[in-house]
């Protein structure tokens, strides 16, 4: 009796939501399994009566599991219930182990993902900082390049001005050299003439000879000063001419630049007008093609209308012929009917009212033929 009561308590504990120690109650995988207490004393089965409550006991798990305790229609015996409970406990332990492994893997993957996300954020921030720095350096390089381009243009203008000034100085130097050579040639000629006119030695005393040489030197100096003044005047005139030529060259350059600008504007206007003319020509060609298509369509409609008119004329002629034939037939029928009335041997008086359909009947019959 005591063993029977213990067995009934052990089996009835299947319906209690008891969980072993260390099991989480919120685990979805464990919610379908009910585990017996870990005490060995609760799992004991002894002889029971044939009509006891265990004979009518049916244990079940979810129907989609292959280990359903109610898979057979007969009642379970004590041994079968014990075997199935042991099997369920074994599967429960296996599932717990799998859940623990899966939880550990998920935790490990989550930690790896968190670490990777932190590294990604760090690398992204570093790349953003480098991008901002590169953008700043690019702006600085762009401004420096613009400044260098401006300086290069200024230096090119200065170089061109220096080249032009050097050319002008070279021309002036060549002219001055030519004039100096001419003056030197004149001086040599004067010296030769003076030496030719020197007094004959011995005819005049040495004192007079010295005085004549001094007078000749003064004359020569005066001549040289005159020539120098003339050359200076010529140089000033040439300088004025050079400045005037420079101003004219600058004015000519400005005029050339203005003419180039006007030429560029004229070319732009010409290109715009050419583009507009091309567009207008294309539009006119398109409109002409559309008009030609419309004319062809109207010609087709006109031809179809002419064909319809011809068909109507033929139908009208046919209707007129049919009307004439109907009139003749009607006259023949009326004459035959009158002859029949006049030749009636029985003497019966037959009153027949015949309407002479002259115009109205003929027109109706013609319309009927036209409809046919």
UniProtKB/TrEMBL annotation:
Keywords: Coiled coil. Residues 138-172, 221-336 form a coiled coil. Residues 1-26 are annotated as: Disordered. This is Putative muscle myosin heavy chain ixodes scapularis muscle myosin heavy chain.
């Amino acid at each position: 009796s005591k063993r029977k009561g213990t067995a009934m308590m052990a089996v009835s504990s299947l319906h209690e939501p008891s969980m072993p120690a260390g099991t989480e109650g919120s685990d979805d995988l464990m919610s379908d399994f009910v585990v017996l207490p870990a005490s060995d004393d609760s799992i004991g089965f002894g002889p029971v009566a044939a009509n006891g409550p265990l004979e009518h006991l049916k244990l079940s798990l979810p129907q989609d599991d292959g280990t359903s305790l109610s898979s057979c229609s007969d009642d379970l015996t004590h041994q079968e219930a014990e075997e199935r409970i042991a099997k369920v406990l074994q599967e429960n332990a296996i599932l717990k182990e799998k859940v623990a492994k899966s939880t550990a893997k998920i935790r490990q993957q989550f930690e790896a993902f968190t670490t990777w996300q932190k590294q990604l954020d760090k690398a992204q921030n570093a790349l953003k900082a480098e991008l901002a720095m590169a953008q700043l350096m690019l702006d600085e390089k762009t401004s420096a390049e613009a400044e260098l381009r401006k300086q290069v243009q200024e230096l090119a203008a200065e170089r061109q001005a220096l080249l032009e000034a050097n050319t002008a100085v070279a021309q002036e130097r060549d002219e001055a050299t030519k004039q100096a050579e001419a003056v030197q040639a004149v001086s040599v000629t004067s010296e030769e003439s003076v030496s030719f006119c020197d007094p004959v030695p011995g005819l005049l005393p040495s004192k007079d000879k010295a005085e004549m040489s001094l007078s000749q030197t003064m004359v020569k100096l005066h001549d040289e000063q005159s020539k120098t003044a003339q050359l200076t005047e010529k140089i000033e005139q040439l300088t004025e001419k050079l400045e005037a030529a420079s101003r004219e060259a600058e004015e000519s350059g400005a005029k050339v630049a203005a003419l180039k600008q006007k030429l560029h504007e004229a070319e732009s206007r010409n290109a715009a007008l050419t583009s507009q003319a091309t567009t207008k020509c294309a539009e006119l060609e398109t409109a002409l093609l559309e008009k030609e298509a419309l004319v062809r369509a109207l010609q087709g409609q006109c031809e179809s209308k002419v064909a319809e008119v011809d068909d109507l004329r033929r139908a009208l002629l046919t209707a007129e012929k049919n009307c004439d034939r109907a009139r003749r037939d009607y006259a023949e029928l009326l004459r035959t009917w009158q002859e029949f009335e006049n030749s009636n041997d029985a003497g019966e008086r037959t009153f027949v009212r015949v309407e002479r359909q002259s115009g109205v009947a003929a027109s109706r019959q013609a319309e009927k033929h036209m409809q046919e």
